[in-house]
TrEMBL record:
Transmembrane segments: none annotated. Residues 19-149 form the Nudix hydrolase domain. PANTHER family: 8-OXO-DGTP DIPHOSPHATASE-RELATED, GDP-MANNOSE MANNOSYL HYDROLASE. It comes from Blautia hominis. Pfam families: NUDIX. Its cofactor is Mg(2+). SUPFAM superfamilies: Nudix. It comes from the Bacteria. This is NUDIX domain-containing protein. The keyword Cytoplasm does not apply.
Length: 154
């Protein structure tokens, strides 16, 4: 899998040369812990999610990504926020540079026993709040992590 470079609030970020990339991520919790994936393309930890396809809604996008990346079925969704800051940039090895806008949902799943890792991930793991600061988080998920820490006071 080819690696991409992501930037978050960096003056070194290149200027986008492609249309804006829209995506959705899900915050999946189990008691006081949140599910993250260690991505195969960057070895960084991230919330479960990905890019919006032309024929789907944001809700369908997060449901699909949750199913593809974890094997879990989203039973319910709650829109938490939209992250649209212009400094959320990803540069791909093929030269494409995109600005990323991400819708963040709280995702409710019925059965966590179905959890399974996809080819896009090296590992899936639930983390408690005290473990999150030690992780290397994907740059475009750092603001989402700060949101999670601020708003989920388990």
């Amino acid at each position: 899998m080819k690696k991409q470079t992501k930037f978050y609030n960096s003056p070194d970020a290149p200027k986008p040369n492609r249309p804006i990339h829209m995506g959705a991520v899900g915050i999946i919790r189990n008691s006081e812990k949140v599910l993250l994936e260690r991505r195969a393309d960057s070895e960084r930890w991230a919330f479960i999610g990905g890019g919006l396809k032309m024929e789907e809604s944001l809700e369908e996008c997060v449901q699909r990504e949750v199913r593809e990346e974890t094997g879990l079925i989203a039973e319910g969704l709650k829109l938490l926020d939209i992250f649209s800051y212009p400094y959320r940039i990803a540069a791909y090895p093929d030269g494409n540079i995109v600005r990323i806008i991400t819708a963040v949902y709280e995702v409710f799943v019925k059965d966590l026993k179905e959890l399974k890792c996809s080819e896009e991930s090296r590992e899936l793991r639930f983390f408690g709040r005290n473990e999150l600061s030690d992780l290397t988080i994907a740059e475009t998920h750092q603001d989402i992590l700060l949101y999670y820490i601020k708003h989920f006071n388990d």
